[in-house]
Amino acid sequence: MIKKFSLAIPLMALGFTFSSQAATLNFGTGNINTSVTGASDATTGASGFGAGVTFDLTISVTGYTAGAGIGTQSSGIGVLGGQAGAGVDNDFNGTGGTNTVPVETMTFTISNVSGAASIVIDEIQVLFGVDGGAGTEFYQIDSNPFASLNSTPELVAVGGVTTVTIGARDDDGITGSDSRFAIGGLELTVTPLPEPSSALLSFLGLTTLLRRRR
Questions:
Q1: Coil, strand, or helix at residue 198?
Q2: pTM for the whole thing?
Q3: In degrees to the nearest 10, what's the CA dihedral of 157, 165, 180, 80?
Q4: Which residues contact 203 (CB under 8 A, 6 or more apart)?
């Protein structure tokens, strides 16, 4: 008589391996300065995504003059419009005024990820004071306002998202004052597709052996 028994081991206990890794998108002259379809480590300015990983990067802007678009700055990228030499500007076309609602914005979106479980944006590299000015720069991440004392560059945490919007604003109440900056790049986290752990592979081998003995 052959005794039958079951070998029940929770898959969670066996586990799958997930080893997230840091990746970077660098913007500016010679790198990425517009939306990219099918981006990968082969894309100039992209690194750390891993073999076989592709994705779409969409960059959309608001507040630029008609017929303009995303312009390459001397360092980083921004929208066209605003004062000369600025990337993202709260003082649209140099008209002055106090703007607590962002006038120019840039939105970065990661989509259509292939070859990885997920890709999320952790930080935006913001280049403040690109006009050579001094003082406090005011900006907004999605709906949250912030201020910076012209540190260049500054990594602004955005919390692991697939889409994020940054805009220039002015909270000091001084008419004609200006906040302006460029975007130097994005810091991201890539979570690869799960791979069976060694424990799971051993379990599968054991169950195969037991089946053969029956």
A1: helix
A2: 0.79
A3: 140
A4: 9, 14
Q: Give dist(CA 58, CA 184) in Å, integer.
A: 16
Kindly compute the dihedral angle of the four CA atoms of residues 203, 208, 212, 214, in this order, to the nearest 10 degrees.
60
Contacts of residue 68, Cβ cutoff 8 Å, sequence gap at least 6: 79, 80, 81
- Please give the structure tokens belonging to residue 102: 């962002």
Residue 60 burial (CB count, 10 A): 15
Dist CA 153 CA 107 (whole Å): 19
For the chain, the straight-line distance linking the first and the last C-alpha, in angstroms and rounded, comes to 11
Give the bridge partners for 62, in sequence order: 105
Query: 160-195: per-residue pLDDT in tens?
Result: 999 999 998 877 655 556 677 889 999 999 999 987
Summarised one tens digit per residue, pLDDT across range 118-165 is 999 999 999 886 655 556 778 889 988 888 876 667 899 999 999 999
- The SS3 call for residue 133 is coil
In angstroms, the CA 49 to CA 188 distance is 9
Count of beta carbons in the 10 Å neighbourhood of residue 148: 17
**Model confidence pLDDT, tens digit, residues 12-35:** 445 555 689 999 999 988 899 889
